[in-house]
Write a structure and sequence with these properties.
The structure is a homodimer. Chain A has about 350 residues and is of the alpha/beta class. Chain A contains nine helices and 17 strands. At the A-B interface, α4, α5 and β10 of A face α4, α5 and β10 of B.
Amino acid sequence: MNYPWPQPGTPLEQVATPMPVIDEERLATNIARAQAYCNSHGKRFRPHIKTHKMAAVARQQIEAGAIGLNCQKVTEAEAFADAGFDDILITYNILGPTKLARLKALNDRVGKLAVVADSETTVDGLASTFGEDRPLTVLVECDTGAKRCGVQTPQAAVALAEKIAAAPALRFGGIMTYPAVGGAEQVERFMAETMKLLSDKGIDCPVRSSGGSPDLFAAHLVPSATEHRAGTYVYNDRSMVRAGHCTTDDLAMQILATVVSRPAPDRAVLDCGSKALTSDLLGFTDYGTIVDYAGAQIVSLSEEHAVIDLQGCQVPFAEIGQVVKIIPNHTCVVTNLFDRIVFHRDGFVTRVEKVDARGTVW
Amino acid sequence: MNYPWPQPGTPLEQVATPMPVIDEERLATNIARAQAYCNSHGKRFRPHIKTHKMAAVARQQIEAGAIGLNCQKVTEAEAFADAGFDDILITYNILGPTKLARLKALNDRVGKLAVVADSETTVDGLASTFGEDRPLTVLVECDTGAKRCGVQTPQAAVALAEKIAAAPALRFGGIMTYPAVGGAEQVERFMAETMKLLSDKGIDCPVRSSGGSPDLFAAHLVPSATEHRAGTYVYNDRSMVRAGHCTTDDLAMQILATVVSRPAPDRAVLDCGSKALTSDLLGFTDYGTIVDYAGAQIVSLSEEHAVIDLQGCQVPFAEIGQVVKIIPNHTCVVTNLFDRIVFHRDGFVTRVEKVDARGTVW
């Protein structure tokens, strides 16, 4: 995209919209706070790259003390391996010949690579792909209440761990769960019971990985966990504020948008549609908060338009051509829509960073 | 993205998922049907590129008889100008120095370029950017009931048309509306009244452009319109079927996805999340239809996972590693998430096409 990316020092008002912008100060504070929390509780911290998808921000996280990265897909991990990262956990069942072949190639060049599995089918595929000369570390994914992937019981976790441990080309790395929907107690109970059962069988369980930004600052309530993974904490978003996991002062991402139409007294239209904000509602009834215009509601999106209902707006709304700032419902999905994202300090551009893992769904 | 794109002849079962795939036969039929309809009613047809975002498909549309393309943003139009398209209507208020400068550069190299405006501010910006040596054609956007952008009355349309006609560097090109939410009669009434008022003032109104795939085959009910614009018709989607605008036989796009987990008897997980399907519900309560598995519901998405509720599934669901096909709620937003998209005939890959205008939000 031959887009006129702004030079450092450019005021944000001159950045062509729509564009997500990241506040350097808040970003640095979010990274430091999470790491300090994990350090103080003796937890290793493994940031999930899904929120920023950028080598540049991942480097900041590693420099702050994170032990490695969490990716979701093989192509995501490839993007970060290309950028030199050497400790990557892929929290996904990798299946099918294309992806297994690429995972094998990745394992040959990443110092510490691990994946998860929650089924015999996944373990069989891994076991027949890898070789004893370069074994792959596999953790068992456990469902501790989120009802997404994961084995359902500690007994099932142990059965799968035994299968992994018995495969010559695989190493059983531990257990992994995401997120703590049922509360920290439920995660702790699942982990502790699994560890006891494994111990009874003489199987070591070196890594117990918990995850989720909503659970980040409650990670100490899961004493069995050795590491925690989190992504959204790095930017935060409207859904994190609503849930009480951060305040509006911790929001590092805003989306700049221009008023392109004021067709009626009670309506404005912005140039950010679902191709900029996405349709993620996350339980809200509107598509983000417009900063400084309390009561103005983003009631509908088409691909390139956001329609704003001004009926409840408590101040005169911005005029055509003026730029407004939006707090997105969900940051991670916004990042995925842009090739590059603009960073700033106090409203002046500091850098423009490539979204290295944009569009990596494989 | 260093992704192993499949070679022609590859069976779809071997394509790494998630991946949207386009049925060549249905694509060609959709293009031919729309063009034949417009031809038979004496309407010019101007496809909106938002749905495919591809020069390759746009070429098929032009070869079938379309007069030119409809884009929404300057960078979208640039992508199609780069590919050699020479008649482009940008149905958007272009504002701000960056975009105006690029629009001017685009006008210097595209034979027939036009934009729309719905405010004096937009017209002022255009008038002060362009020169008499290379004037820009501007249509007035009219709100005929959709409550997005557009002037609210024929009188307001005429006032803005007069302003455009009076600017030495601009040419008044006509009027444009999207979509016909209030029905064809409302569009016709607005257009006819505006034309009469313009005629009374001696202002020619050469183009009257109506739009929307839902209104495509009702375009003959707006006799005043000279051209119709539509995007979604080229692939169609679940929302078009529900509204009765097409049948399931007209659905050219499916998304291939792999079952990655069967954690519980009533639950499966696919490898297509909101990064593949998007969160667009368009009034549905779930995120697409899984072909051949009636009653299996895509009840929730995270970025890389689709959680399927199998409680109502009427047949045994696919096992881990098997590929299923999904009809998306909304095609256009899916296209925007992929760098390239796979085409097939009878289940065998025919070509892989670049999504030339992916991510062009400016």
